[in-house]
Structures are given as structure tokens and as C-alpha cells.
Amino acid sequence: MQAVRLMERGRGGVRVVDIPEPERPQGFVLLRMIAASVNRVDLYMRDSGAGISHSLPQTMGVDGIGEVLECDADSHFRKGERAIIYPYVFCGSCRHCLAGEQPLCLRASIFGEHRDGTFAQYLAVPQTSLLPLAATADIYAAAALGVAYLTAWRMVFGKAPVHPGATVLVQGAAGGVSYAAIQLALMAGARVIATTGGEAKSAHFRSLGIEVVDYRSENVVKAVAALTGGEGADVVIDNSGEASWSQSLRSLRRGGHLVTCGATTGGHPSAEIQRLFVRQLSVHGSTLGSVEELRRLLAAFQTGALTPRIDSVFPLDRIEDALARLEHPDRIGKVVVDIAGD
Ligand SMILES: [Zn+2]
To answer: For the chain, what is the domain count?
Structure first.
């Protein structure tokens, strides 16, 4: 079968190769993969992979959807059904799994990070890491849910739940998770302010009916203060890290919440501890989401409450172009890989 393998670090290390089809252990479902999406973590794996236990070569790809080819006789899946992959393989018996917090599982592994991933024509997945997907679901939109939208779901509805009327500032709005967070915050009835760079992207977000601050030409902190009567935002979603961290803390109202799931521009900004305690700010770290959160997200998607924004679609053998598009400054939303070409 064809698979995208990371052979060695760096851009030249990503190759489309022929490898044997996977075996299906008991308790697993063999999927014919339909589509997946590229995520920032794919670039991190390509370029560094530091801090993530794995060995190369390894198949890339963290999320995706597929069609059931083979499963146990007593499985609740059936041949021919579609399923969406939950990115974690989890033990199901540690204290965190028993509490429904699979992202904290003591023995968790993630596709495309700790084990072979989803950019392959076939993949064996534990049936506990799969949810059924409606046959009528748009395949590209569904393929974008597993990482970006699940991550955004937990950021918006998790530890500092966004409520109707809350003001949410989303930094770097065009990124996959940020775009998803905007859609989910709007779904929750929040007022959303987006920061982005350049006229074309600003115009796109204004067309969604939300307020936009262009960080290339405006001072974000002053602009957010002006838009909120000097008070600041209730919640800031910041996946960019070092470059925007200070702005994000300064854009929060007293008692506000900063939620982060990424550090694209670096992971060591000033902590600004005085600001944290004097203004009683909270900082929440977030990664992906639980199986139950994926189920809720999928329900919102399948009832039409949410339509993921797809920037572009590439066939599996153009993975390098897909990764380049992910890094392109004009990108807005998700880049999808069409694996099956159905
Ligand atoms: Zn566990």
C-alpha cells in the first residue's frame, strides 16, 4: 500500500513509499483510509519530533476517516461503514481513562506521533479509538474534525467554557484550530474578535460578521481595549505562543482566561506573574479532547450546526504540497489529504 513515511528529519525526509498492509489484531478495525488532514504537529514531527517517543521511519498523519474493511465478529462496527479516528490509542484502565480524560492517559499514544499514522491506504485502529460516521457526511469536512476541531472544542467548551455574550479574542485566526475556535465560539453565542495579518484575511473574517484586528497594522492590546470599553476579553485563545503571549495577557479582562494549545512562534515568553496574580488571570493548557468531546463535536457536525472550513485538498502523493500549503501565509482553515480518491 501507499503511505507517507517520515524517513528522516527535514523536508526531504517525507516520502510516499510502498509498504505492506497492516495486520489487524483482535479488538482492532481495519480501515481503508478515505481522507485525513495535515496539522502543525506533522511539521513538528518532520522538523524536530523532540520530546515525543517514536522511531523512524514512521507513517505520518494524526487524524482522518476511513471505511471499515474488517473487524471482530462482536464489534459494533460493520464492514462498509465509515468511521472517524480518535487520535489517541488509550489504555482504558488508568485513573485518567476511567475519569473519561483519555488525553491524560498514562499509556497513551497518538497516531503519527508515537505510532504509525493515518496518511496510508490502510490502517488498523483499536475499535475504542473509532466513532461511526454518517454515510452522507462530507468526507473532507469530516477529515478535518479529529485534531483541529476537537482541540478547539476543548479550548472553547472545556475548563473556561465560553457562554453566550462572552467576548472571545482568537489570535492568529486563519490557523486550523483558531478558525475552528471562532466557529465554535460563535456557535456558543459569543462575541468574537479575531486577530490576523493582511487585508485579504481581514476581509475574510469581517465577512463572517466578526470584529477583526490586523496585527500587521494595529496595536492588538489597544484595539481590543477600544472594542471592549477598556475592559478586555473574557477568554483569549492563543496557539501562537511567544510572539503573542504578552498581548494575549494584556488583552484579558480582570479574572479572564487564556487558553493555549500551541507554541508555533516559541514556547518561552515572559510569564508576567505580577499581571497574573494582581488581575487574577488563569492560564489553561489544552491538548486535543476526550472521546466524549469528539462524540459531541461529531453530533454538532452531523446535525449541520458546524461546517469546517477547508482551505484546499491534495492527493496523498502530493503530501509535500499539502505541507507547504499548511505553512503558506495565505492559507485560511484546513488542508486535507484525499487518500482514497473516491
Ligand atoms: Zn489510560
So the answer is: 2
pLDDT, tens digit (0-9, with 9 covering 90-100), for 260-306? 999 988 999 998 999 999 999 999 999 999 999 999 999 999 999 99
Which one-letter DSSP state was computed for residue 52?
S
Task: Give the strand order in the sheet containing 2-6.
Answer: 14-18, 2-6, 58-59
What's the CA gap between 72 and 84, in Å, rounded? 18
pLDDT in tens, 189-223: 999 999 999 999 999 999 999 999 999 999 999 99
87 C-alpha to center of ligand 1: Å? 14
- pLDDT at residue number 251: 98
Cα–ligand 1 centroid distance for 90 (angstroms)? 5
Ligand 1 mean position, distance from CA 22 (Å): 24
* Mean pLDDT score, 31-35: 98
331 lies in the same domain as 206: no
Cα(315) to ligand 1 centroid in Å equals 35
Same domain, 176 and 237: yes
Query: Which CATH number do you get for residue 201?
Result: 3.40.50.720
In a domain, 227, yes or no: yes
CA of 106 to the centre of ligand 1 (A): 5
> Comparing C-alpha atoms, which of 306, 199, 286 is closest to residue 236?
286
Whole-number Å distance, alpha carbon 129 to ligand 1 midpoint, is 12
Task: Please indicate, yes or no, if residue 153 is contained in any of the structural domains.
Answer: no
Residue 71 CB-half CA count within 13 A = 21
CA of 329 to the centre of ligand 1 (A): 38
**Is 253 domain-assigned?**
yes
Residue 342 has pLDDT above 90, yes or no: no
CA of 278 to the centre of ligand 1 (A): 37
